[in-house]
Write a structure and sequence with these properties.
- Among the domains are: about 90 residues, no CATH class; about 100 residues, Roll (Chitinase A, domain 3), CATH 3.10.50.40.
- The protein contains ten helices and six strands, in the order αββααααβααβαββαα.
- By secondary structure, the protein is of the alpha+beta class.
- It is about 50% helix and about 15% strand.
- The strands form two sheets. Strands 4-3-6-5 form a four-stranded antiparallel sheet.
Length: about 300
């Protein structure tokens, strides 16, 4: 039955790549700030004429492959230092070959500079500016205060034809166990659990199934088979209850992400109003505006 549940976009979905980059950068910077050594300027190793400092090691620790994230601090530090020695060694060779003077390299460095500025501005104006009080206020306004909705606890039996479903209903009318019939007759993955789907609320099931389930009284089953795109269902409701809003601690990170996304979009829109943005290709301009919803 898991395939019947609608795919719901999480509240905190951040669709724009730039928001994701900035958010990740903000998290990495926060980790780096927490890991800053007492003397970040202390030189630990010199590769040729290139010094590697404690501060650079701490920064590199936040940018290692995910597989290093769970290493003990001492091992993570060694991994970071080893990576930096590799980087400095080849960077020195690249400078000797004047790769840093090529147009491609300069273009990439300019892109990286602007992206770093973008991320730093986002961190200062958005990520660091959102307080715990802001997050709690948004939760109280839109989640805790949302109108209560009911959810139902249902079982079901899924078969291929209407005739099969009608035969099952006749067996139920004669006193057969719903759970036993589900285990024997149902083609759904919930059959092993007697057709148990657990609790679900509005919008979580396909419309035809949802309407039939919510219309049933507790303890009753459908007198007529219910057809959906998956086949024919016999549904039994065993409980109904008010759906409680999720606890603040469980959704606070999602709420914070929503606030970050909204404030980021506002920040970008205001910044772009102050810039003169000209496209050389009208078709490209239209495509970008259609994709971003820009005016």
């Amino acid at each position: 039955m898991s395939s019947m549940r609608k795919t719901l976009l999480p509240l905190a979905a951040v669709a724009m790549l730039s928001v994701g980059l900035a958010a990740a950068h903000a998290q990495d910077t926060a980790k780096a700030d927490a890991a800053k050594p007492a003397d970040p300027g202390k030189v630990v190793v010199t590769v040729g004429d290139s010094p590697i400092t404690e501060g650079e090691i701490a920064l590199a620790e936040t940018d290692l492959d995910p597989q290093f994230a769970n290493l003990p601090p001492d091992q993570r530090r060694i991994a970071a230092l080893s990576a930096l020695i590799d980087i400095h060694s080849l960077a020195n060779k690249a400078e000797a070959d004047k790769i840093d003077q090529t147009p491609d390299f300069k273009q990439r460095m300019e892109f990286l500079r602007e992206r770093a500025l973008h991320n730093a501005y986002f961190k200062e104006k958005v990520a660091d500016a959102i307080t715990d009080a802001d997050v709690k206020a948004r939760y109280d306004k839109e989640i805790a205060a949302a109108p209560a909705v009911n959810e139902v606890h249902a079982y079901h039996i899924l078969v291929k034809t209407k005739e099969e479903a009608e035969a099952i209903i006749k067996k139920l009318d004669a006193g057969a166990s719903f759970e036993d019939l589900a285990k024997k007759e149902s083609t759904d993955g919930s059959a092993a659990d007697g057709g148990d789907l657990g609790y679900f609320g509005p919008g979580q099931m396909v419309p035809e199934f949802e309407k039939a389930a919510f219309d049933l009284k507790v303890g009753s089953y459908t007198e007529q088979p219910v057809q959906t795109q998956f086949g024919w269902h016999v549904i039994k409701v065993v409980d109904k209850r008010p759906k409680q809003p999720p606890a603040f601690d469980k959704v606070k990170d999602q709420v914070r992400s929503v606030l970050m996304r909204e404030r980021y979009i506002e920040l970008v829109q205001n910044a772009q109003k102050e810039e003169k943005i000209e496209y050389s290709d009208p078709a490209l301009e239209k495509a970008v505006k259609d994709a971003t919803g820009a005016q």
